[in-house]
What we know:
Mean pLDDT: 84
Shape: globular
Radius of gyration: 22 Å
Number of helices: 20
Strand content: under 5%
Helix content: over 70%
Oligomer: single chain
Order of helices and strands: HHHHHHHHHHHHEEHHHHHHHH
Amino acid sequence: PAADAFAFFGHTNIFLMIGVFIFVGVMIQQGFAKRIALWLLSRKFASKSSASLMTMYIVAMAIISAFMSNIPATMLFLMIAKGICEAIGVDETHPYSKALKFSAAYGSQAGGLATPIGAPNTNFLAMGLMLSLCGCNVRFADWMAVGAPFAVIICVISILYFRRIFKSDLGNMEAARQYAQNEYDKLGPLRKGEKISVFLVFLAIVLWIVPSIISAIIGDAHPAVAVMDRVLNASIVSIFVAILAFLIPLDWKKRKFSTTWGEAAGNVNWGVLILVSCGFLLGGAMNAEGVKLIGWFAKKISGVLGDAPGILVILGFTVLAMVITQFISNVPAISIITTMSVPVAIATNLNPVALAFAIAMAAQMSYILPVAAPQMAIAYGSGGLKLTEFARVGILQCIFSIPIIVFFVYYWANFLFPMGSFVMPA
Length: 426
């Protein structure tokens, strides 16, 4: 029915994303993200060698991308990379220039996995599907417990991988560090707007993780946990902090506030909201009464799999998600494959929540083609990278990621969210 279909456009996670876009947008507007990036790149460690600078560059990219959208984060670091290359005297076709461009895209991808707000379109969609399909309420800290370690592993792999394939021993790294230091100095002292933006993000994160902390102390079964989940619901916290952004003044005499509706509306990616809503809609439609496409698929696939080891099922869904996401947006990929995987997981005695985590991570390994993810397209569009080069680097990164997702993400999520800790919807 139309009423049920359009109800997905009012899903609580949609309002969660609207709030995130608004208050994280304040941090971007005020320039705090750029300040942190330049500060990290101006550390003395970065000037030790070209490898040290690239390591710091990827780490800085991942940290920033964990708390802001991948697209502006990638654009910011590509601009910084251009300045670094000019400072050390290399052009866009130089291996080191290519290494920094790949580092921006791959570091952004890794950072986006660490927290729900790092890649809100995919992460919040996955969290919503886990709740609606599995009855598992994955909180902010719960996602980080799986996503942050995985992001660290992906960062380490990227650093070691790029140091191997982009061998470039440049001797004038001090010039690059000095460039970052000069750009940092131009920003001047920390402004009021930057302090407010940090306060807003920090407040949201604290309020998001309070229910998880209380749950860890007194146990999920305690009535206070249910109360905290209702009062400090992620969507409520997100909208509350977004409202604060409109109310906290930058200059009371001029009646200038942290953000305006025009700025906030510009920061909200309305296209992504519609896309994620359609992802929820697609998942719901495939399992709707009278359709039961997923149930039919589960019976068919269970018959094919028979007594196949669970590890092969996990591997199959991981590879499927990773392949599909190279050609289509990861939002429909996560929606379709996660919805398909839940009944299959139950039929094969696997943990559906852990499998959903593995699929969510695999669907974000969009490395092979520039069209696979916006940050990849931005890096490719900046010039100096060949399509064949892009594919060659990306294929190996995907291959490296598969065993980590299968053996770490699934089994670690299975440990954190064991069967019995959530109640499957009827």
